[in-house]
Amino acid sequence: MPCKPAFRLGRARTGLGLFATAPIKKRAFIVEYKGRKLTTEQADVLEARGNRYLYEINSRWTIDGTTRRNLGRYANHSCRPNAKARTVGHKVFLRAIKNIKPGDEITYNYGRDYFLNVITPRGCKCDKCRAKRAAAQAKTRAKARAKSSSPDCAARSRRRCRNRSAASRTSPTSRKST
Fold first, then answer.
1. Where is 41: in which H helix or E strand?
2. Domain identity same for 40 and 103
3. CA–CA separation, 52 vs 46, rounded Å?
4. In a structure prediction context, what are the per-residue pLDDT tens digits for the chain, which is 178 residues long?
């Protein structure tokens, strides 16, 4: 009887993903990236049609991981991954590069080409990059607040408040019409 996998398929920020259901030790096998073996020319044709599940083994061979039975296709990209793809012959395996706790998403680095061509135009959605963007936005907001709270700006805003309160005291209904 086959053993139960230590992961489940679940909803992630970037679509579907693999999540650990039990602790996975460092260097442990997680899943095989399965599919038809294609030549690079055949893979180029599929890529032009929009196939996103192509894993290039070497300059000559590529694995088409489109089939849904290929659970390895659900492992998402991360700039700080917890798994690594290992090529053995013409097979690709995902192995843990650190201890993975139950509930953690299983991720690996898709590589420089994929990052530059696919992820960069849209922005990376991994936790590390999201945290970096959030910190940069917070820094920008803090600079804007510091700039607007300078003495000159504070004096201007107090004048605006006085002008508004004076305008509210003389409402349009209390004025005489001529």
1. helix 40-48
2. yes
3. 9
4. 457 788 888 998 878 999 999 999 999 999 999 999 999 999 999 989 988 889 999 999 999 999 989 999 999 988 889 999 999 989 999 999 999 999 999 999 988 887 777 777 667 777 778 888 888 888 888 888 888 776 655 555 555 555 555 555 554 554 444 4
Q: Give the chain's domain count.
A: 2
Together in a domain, 96 and 50: yes
The pTM assigned to this predicted structure is 0.70
The reply to whether 118 and 163 lie within a common domain is no
Answer whether residue 61 is part of any domain: yes
Do 50 and 93 sit in the same domain of this protein?
Answer: yes
Q: For tokens 């992961």, what's the residue?
A: 7
In the chain, DSSP finds a helix count (H) and a strand count (E) of: 5, 10
Q: Is 34 exposed, middle or buried (0-12, 13-18, 19+ CB in 10 A)?
A: middle
Residue 175 lies in a domain: no
